[in-house]
Amino acid sequence: MIGDGNGWLDGPNGARLWGKYGAAGVFLLAGSRVLLQHRAEWTANGGTWALPGGARDSHETVEEAALREAVEECSIDTDRVHVFHSLVTAGPFESGWSYTTVLARTVDGEPIPTEADEESLELRWVELENIRELPLLPAFERSLETILWHCSNHD
Questions:
Q1: In which domain, by residue range, is 51 found?
Q2: Hydrolase among the record's keywords (predicted)?
Q3: Whole-angstrom Cα distance, residue 85 to residue 62?
């Protein structure tokens, strides 16, 4: 059912985890740039930079969830996106919750148009070498080395 994944779960050490069936986000590359979202202040970890993403619905694959969220939050055209790998970058925790990062590239290597929704202060294509200059969502920052390694090893 559409939207049945929305909701909080209890995570380790009192953490609150968004997504009854886990969550997913897309690390969308365009050449040497990646699409990042400056999260609106009212969202969890508001004011930080991270990947477009969110709760996974019960009927979705992680790839479907990540791309749906990118469409909702960034208005991307998924016909211009090629998914090449996905990896669990948080969890799985005792509740079964996990966060999956879906790795994708624009089909022509160029940034595609985006339009931010209310969950975003800004969307930006950021050079890979400059990602760490931004205040990152802590979980994204912890997974960044693994994500970058997988991107460079899945051409």
A1: 8-152
A2: yes
A3: 11
Q: What is the pTM of this model?
A: 0.95
Is residue 53 in a domain? yes
Identity (one letter) of the amino acid at 54? G
**Strand boundaries in the chain, DSSP class E:** 8-10, 16-18, 23-30, 33-39, 49-50, 53-55, 81-90, 99-106, 120-127
Indicate whether 2 belongs to any domain.
Answer: no
Q: Is residue 37 part of a domain?
A: yes
Q: pLDDT (tens digit, 9 = 90+) per residue, 79-117?
A: 999 999 999 999 999 888 999 999 999 999 999 999 999
Q: Which ranges of 7-76 does DSSP label H, i.e. alpha helix?
A: 62-74
Give the largest CA-CA distance in the chain: 43
71: number of Cβ within 10 Å: 16
